[in-house]
Amino acid sequence: MKREALHIAPHIAAALLNRRPVVALESTIIAHGMPYPANRDTALAVEQIIRDRGALPATLGMLRGRIIVGLTTEEIELMATAKGVEKAGERDLPIFAAQRRNAAVTAGASIAIAAAAGIDVFVTGGIGGVGPLASRDFDISADLPAIAQYSVITVCAGTKAFMDVPATLEYLETARVPVATYQADDFPLFYSISSGVRSPWRVETAEEIAAAFQAQKHLGRTGGFLIGIPVPNESALPVEQTRAAIAAAMRQIEQTGITGKAVTPFLLAAIKEATAGESLAANIALIRNNAALGADIAAALLR
Ligand code: PSU
Ligand code: MN
After folding, report:
1. 217 to 22, 212, 220, 223: CA distances (angstroms)
2. 105/84 Cα distance (integer angstroms)
């Protein structure tokens, strides 16, 4: 992607030029991941958390076919409320650009945009992964090859909980992506603290992550890092509750025949129903937590 093709908000462009820390944020979680008004309130709260830690948030999205780096509050409100906001993965960007659409961007598309803009750190809630039925339906999120390809650090609370976590970690190993968990041994499970799978690498500080990312550049390697950080204890769902809600949601989706990029939004909504909203509370808590670490990594990279 060409940097000239992006519409970078002036304050973000200035921050990048002056080597101030910037954190990229996605918008699919706003338009398709959470109900209103939790989606808008969370998006704005996450931006404020990043500012409070001395970095600048740049929420990404597409408006009338233009890729925006640094949506305004009004534009975030539009993402949160407008009808017909598309879900744009990286491959959808040229089509929606030609059609002058409004589109929320996925984690994978956001990573591609962040790389083009020169933003090193990207924060999301949970990434897409190898889907639960991938051996049958080949559903592997395009988030994974984007993490592997672009030199951006992604901070998340794991894959979304209904993904196949062991298979996702295998994929990332094959794709040569360094994967670490922040202050825990196991890779997290989005709503729950542990996926039960040991993380390839454990880190204690933002500085450690920044140093390894700088070493990667020094070695002339391209590609990203994936950092998992468990949901805060007080908002975590017990793992049995997460697994039961996923099982219920999976039974529902088998009946509907929904496939492709509609799967993730459907399952997130079904799990929210199955947990009486507790999964949404966990989702909000974890993305706020991820944002704080993302801001600290962005600052550490510039020290
Ligand atoms: N994290 C959340 N909620 C979301 C998503 C992530 O807490 O809605 C979005 C991200 O934009 C991610 C997308 O890229 O879900 C993955 O969709 P799929 O599984 O179709 O690749
Ligand atoms: Mn998919």
Report:
1. 18, 9, 5, 9
2. 14
Å from CA of 32 to ligand 2 middle: 14
Name the superfamily (CATH) of residues 3-301. Indigoidine synthase domain (3.40.1790.10)
Ligand 1 site, CB within 6 A: 26, 28-29, 32-33, 106-108, 124-126, 128, 141-143, 160, 261, 263-264, 268, 283
Active site members: 26, 160
Per-residue pLDDT reduced to its tens digit, 90-142? 999 999 999 999 999 999 999 999 999 999 999 999 999 999 999 999 999 99
Where are the chain's structural domains?
A: 3-301
Q: How far apart (Å, rounded) are the C-alpha atoms in residues 281 and 175? A: 33
Residues 148-181: tens digit of each pLDDT: 999 999 999 999 999 999 999 999 999 999 999 9
User: Both tokens of residue 105?
Assistant: 């961007």
CB 262 within 8 A of CB 129: no
